[in-house]
């Protein structure tokens, strides 16, 4: 097998947003993980070939993160050739890992091995102490389970992987693995792997259309003051343990195709996206959980993440791997008794208005700056919790239908998300419509919030969404 190579590594300095993630990952937020449950053994050579092809096609996947102490800056250093190695765990090693993860709270939750391995990987922080050395940004592991099942896990640094990247990575990997299964070794030996000789794509700040991020010094100061002051007024979920070391845990929300269809129809009828309904359900559920007196008003934060690829210059496609999302923070006052659809419309309209004013571009630098200041000074947040809002959602829902590649590789299930036990919201929702089911991976910091607490919140969100879909949101949602 011939491989085109370059003579020497290439690289570039990280952008402002990427730099924020370099600092956030050190504290435990931004470890992106894809966990795939398969009923067919992932042949080591086939999997390695598929991963190497991915690295050849996407420079960021064959890059390492380098820190320069003299200038206190980070850079991507891109290798001329693929280098990822697959770490394998046999049945015994996997059993030991799962046994160690089974605390009393986890036993009571009866979590699947896929779920537990996802949580385990979310808390494997390969980048702690990375201020001194170069560190890989892309890791692969395979866990053997009983009954001829395996879990394949990909773990990536958020500076090089937003949700769009993760979704494209999963689809490309399954296609490549399917091709590997179909090809004979002789044919494979004759295929040439094409290397993308380019460097890592430019940072998002370098691709914003001219003038779209421009803001006067006075306006920037006013906006930053507004964000700072409002953050002190935001209501949080009750903290269970704000002092102990934290890790990331996950609760899964599943809604059947019939109810999912009704919820999506309700969104479509009102000209909104699912993110508005998810945000509204979370605010109503959180407010109800606090048992406030009737009509006691509380202000909550909702962060909506939007993919900027299509509006950059030049525009990028989903196959441009990296981090190209921006965040919009909106606050909403809840007094109790709100109707789901009415609140969902309000949340989505607020987000859309911010986008129309290009604030998702012009406020990017402000939010990155404040994010870094909060990480440096946790005391600026309630109980030093580093919570930035109640919930984060994505503007666009991932749509995924089972296909021949998934069947060929033997994919039974998968889960994907990013860690959040550093600076982050109380709950981050990664939503997918898969074969008609609404499948949300809901991520939260533990023990700041308990599994029981978050399971109850997610269960309440599910009831609120299903009820609204069935009654078209005509009745107020009560505790």
Automatic annotation (TrEMBL):
Gene3D superfamilies: Chloramphenicol acetyltransferase-like domain (3.30.559.10), Nonribosomal peptide synthetase, condensation domain (3.30.559.30)
Listed SUPFAM superfamilies: CoA-dependent acyltransferases
Name assigned to this protein: Uncharacterized protein
Classification lineage: Eukaryota, Viridiplantae, Streptophyta, Embryophyta, Tracheophyta
């Amino acid at each position: 097998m011939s491989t085109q190579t370059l003579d020497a590594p290439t690289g570039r300095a990280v952008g402002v947003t990427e730099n924020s993630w370099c600092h956030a990952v050190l504290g435990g937020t931004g470890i992106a993980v894809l966990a795939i449950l398969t009923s067919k053994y992932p042949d080591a050579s086939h999997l390695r070939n598929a991963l190497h092809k991915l690295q050849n096609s996407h420079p960021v996947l064959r890059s390492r993160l380098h820190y320069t102490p003299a200038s206190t800056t980070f850079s991507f250093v891109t290798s001329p050739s693929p280098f990822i190695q697959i770490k394998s765990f046999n049945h015994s090693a996997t059993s030991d890992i799962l046994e160690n993860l089974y605390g009393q709270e986890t036993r009571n939750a009866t979590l699947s091995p896929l779920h537990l391995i996802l949580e385990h990987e979310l808390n494997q922080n390969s980048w702690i102490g990375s201020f001194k050395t170069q560190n890989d940004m892309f890791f692969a592991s395979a866990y053997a389970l009983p009954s001829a099942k395996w879990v394949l896990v990909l773990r990536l640094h958020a500076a090089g992987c937003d949700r769009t990247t993760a979704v494209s990575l999963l689809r490309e990997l399954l296609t490549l693995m399917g091709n590997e299964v179909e090809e004979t070794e002789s044919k494979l030996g004759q295929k040439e792997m094409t290397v993308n000789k380019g460097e890592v794509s430019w940072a998002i700040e370098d691709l914003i259309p001219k003038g779209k991020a421009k803001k006067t010094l006075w306006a920037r100061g006013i906006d930053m003051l507004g964000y700072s002051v409002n953050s002190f007024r935001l209501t949080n979920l009750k903290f269970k343990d704000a002092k102990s070391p934290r890790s990331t845990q996950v609760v899964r929300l599943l809604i059947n195709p019939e109810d999912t269809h009704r919820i999506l129809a309700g969104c479509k009828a009102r000209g909104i996206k699912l993110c508005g309904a998810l945000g509204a359900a979370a605010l109503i559920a959180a407010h109800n959980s606090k048992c406030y007196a009737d009509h006691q008003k509380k202000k909550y934060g909702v962060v909506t993440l939007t993919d900027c690829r299509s509006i950059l210059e030049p525009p990028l496609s989903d196959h441009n791997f990296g981090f190209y999302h921006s965040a919009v923070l909106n606050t909403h006052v809840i007094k109790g008794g709100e109707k789901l659809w009415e609140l969902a419309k309000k949340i989505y309209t607020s987000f859309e208005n911010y986008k129309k004013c290009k604030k998702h571009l012009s406020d990017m630098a402000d939010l990155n700056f404040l994010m870094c200041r909060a990480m440096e000074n946790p005391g600026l947040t309630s109980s030093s919790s580093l919570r930035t809002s109640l919930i984060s959602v994505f503007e666009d829902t991932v749509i995924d239908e089972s296909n021949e590649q998934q069947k060929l590789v033997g994919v039974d299930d998968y889960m994907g998300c990013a860690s959040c036990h550093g600076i982050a919201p109380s709950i981050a929702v990664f939503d997918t419509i898969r074969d008609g089911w609404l499948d949300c991976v809901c991520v939260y910091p533990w023990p700041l919030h308990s599994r029981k607490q978050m399971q109850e919140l997610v269960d309440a969100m599910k009831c609120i969404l299903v009820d609204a879909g069935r009654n078209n949101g005509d009745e107020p949602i009560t505790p």
